[in-house]
TrEMBL record:
Monomer. Its cofactor is [4Fe-4S] cluster. This is tRNA-2-methylthio-N(6)-dimethylallyladenosine synthase. Catalyzes the methylthiolation of N6-(dimethylallyl)adenosine (i(6)A), leading to the formation of 2-methylthio-N6-(dimethylallyl)adenosine (ms(2)i(6)A) at position 37 in tRNAs that read codons beginning with uridine.
Amino acid sequence: MIEKVSENKKYVKFLTYGCQMNFSDAERMEGELAKIGYEPTESMEQADLIMINTCCVRETAEDKVYGKIGEIKGLKRKNPDLLLGITGCMAQKEGEKLIKRAPHIDFVLGTNKIHEVVSTVQKLEAASVKHVVDTEIRESEMPEDVAIHRKTALSAWIPIMYGCNNFCTYCIVPYVRGRERSRLPEDIVKEVQEAAAQGFKEITLLGQNVNSYGKDHGKASFAELLAMVDKVEGIERIRYMTSHPKDLSDEVIEVIKNSRHICKHFHLPVQYGSNRILKAMNRVYTVEGYRELVRKIRAAVPEASLTTDLIVGFPGETEEDFQQLMEFLAEIRYDQAYTFIYSKRSGTPAAEMENQVDDRCKHERLNRLMELQNSISLEINQQLTGKTVEVMVEGPSQTDDTVWTGRTDTNKIVLWKHSGSEKPGDLVQVKIHTAQTWLLKGELA
Ligand code: SAH
Ligand code: SF4
Ligand code: F3S
């Protein structure tokens, strides 16, 4: 009998979709799997374990996952020992249904199961069970004391809280991530210090609504946490997301204004520009309240950039609402907007609302919105031509390795010709000569 040649090495391939929180979770699951000998690979063919860390914020995100699950069926035929695990938000939402639809899936773990990944894989390796499905959210448990395999080179993701309490009527996140729970400030500061010791120059603090950080345990507010993190030596830039306008306090603006390292960039998703739709979305603030917040930010930190998320085609959106949104954009003048077409998520209140907007109309409005926003973004960027900006070096651009890329503290992407000496993490001065909608080009000053 010919024995199967074993390299004695096991490989895991991660496919991660969705937001930074999901990428951060994947880094922790990968760190945990390393404890039982799994090394990361980029190759699906080489993998002994494939983990699809899913998102379900829009239908398109779910379609991508079903496509991938289908592809893996062929790989499992060639390699019957290959394990396939589905984790993340769609796993939380669909649970058992995923395995009914695709029986070649070995396990489904929900969003709060980072601690359970190792024991689940071990059970399946030992073939003591056929499938594992675990989507219970125990909100008292947080993934502390887990190993982390950071995948990013420059910026470290640091989760500060999990879950969401807001229940915006279009959004699935609170149903799949559970209620808000904040990590302890000392655990967060320790993780930031460790990232600095590993050479990270930038960190991004993560939460669905970072402004409500600490309201559950009362040990520190978001403003206090920012001030603590700002003191960590070695970290040059601090970013955070996402900031809900209803909870952005004056203290937070003040801390950012006086900080050493917190980036002068406010990502403040407004979602819509008419009070009627904001109310139907359960965003809690009004157009007037938001406008006042922007005024305060710009008065305190005039050089700050401002970006947003927008949804078009929310149920009941009329041409009049849409006109108000367009006027609001022209008034606020965001540096950048991430625009989404409303996607019906079953189980959310908006999915049951009447007057769903038809697809053609949604696309047509999205195009008009993007056209307006692109022209504003370009005009704002053009004001930077001839100016010198400070850029944190990231590395070679995707298309040409002599052209390097990095970001300003206001989060604008800058490209320049590499001199041969600047390294990732360095801060360099770049004089801008060309402005485009999504990036700036220049030369070292
Ligand atoms: N917690 C963050 C957002 C997380 S989801 C916040 O409150 O800002 C990221 C973005 O996806 C949201 O800002 C919203 O613009 C968009 N989004 C959420 N649900 C959506 C849906 N059902 N259809 C389309 N876009 C959606
Ligand atoms: Fe979704 Fe609203 Fe929570 Fe953001 S704040 S995750 S949009 S429910
Ligand atoms: Fe998607 Fe879950 Fe993030 S639904 S956007 S991966 S919190």
